[in-house]
Amino acid sequence: MGPLHRRDGKRVMRSVVILGGHGDGLVAAAALLEAERSGRPVRVAGFLNDATPVGGAIGGIPVLGRLEDWSTLSSDVLFLPALHKAKLMHERARRICGLGIPEERWATVVHPMSVVSESARVGSGSFVGPFVTIQPGAQLGRFVSLRAGANVGHDARCGDFSYMGPNATLCGRAELGEGSHLGPNAVVLDGKRIGNYAVVGIGSAVTKNLPEFGVYMGNPARRVAAISPGGLDVVAPF
Ligand SMILES: CC(C)(COP(=O)(O)OP(=O)(O)OC[C@H]1O[C@@H](n2cnc3c(N)ncnc32)[C@H](O)[C@@H]1OP(=O)(O)O)[C@@H](O)C(=O)NCCC(=O)NCCS
Fold first, then answer.
1. Which of 25, 32, 89, 151 is 20 to 30 A from 130 in CA distance terms?
2. Per residue in 192-212, pLDDT tens?
3. Per the confidence metrics, is the pTM higher than 0.85?
4. Whose CA is nearest to atom 4 of ligand 1?
């Protein structure tokens, strides 16, 4: 997150606006509320959401405008994207980048009940949920989302815009490509890589490198469909 201390050492309260709403947005809001309750100088200021009009609320948190309205908010406000969508993440990534929000305005939100090794790196715009563990040497890029209980092994890598569902595990040195999605309870064997924008279904076991833009399921995970920039094309029957 942006600086929480002024030069004189005083703590500065930072307001965070979440891009999104129901689902991932409220999960991120819950983490920020927990951080505030545990004494960290952060607060949720609202949502930016294209579907709910200004003046409305999501989970009791006000909607301040559409995504493009970020530039009308105070320059002190930080932003967190909660716009993950399996199979459509390439479109979402383009949308997030297209907003033109400067690097220093992205928050990095780490739930106070997660364990992040001191030698791990978490990029800006990323979200680390409760009970996540991130082991030494792990590197998370920008806009990564790790849901409750995800395990990132030592020296593992999560590319920009990648996602790990609840209780998913990346074993040591395993890798998530840009925008890829590892479903809840899925696991990736040590050193194996999931290609960019690929989707791995719930509870799957990834034992080999998986090429980009595919949908994979099962144990061992096998390819069941392709993802095209326009959507999903089925290449094999389920
Ligand atoms: C992999 C996935 C993207 C495929 O989506 P889809 O194309 O809409 O397909 P469906 O989910 O309808 O599943 C198609 C079939 O595969 C089966 N299936 C789904 N996931 C499966 C899995 N992990 N292993 C085995 N079979 C699976 C379904 O039961 C269904 O079978 P049917 O055709 O006999 O009814 C989706 O199942 C998925 O896992 N989405 C991500 C969920 C997720 O991570 N949510 C985050 C929660 S925090």
1. 89
2. 999 999 999 999 999 999 999
3. yes
4. 201
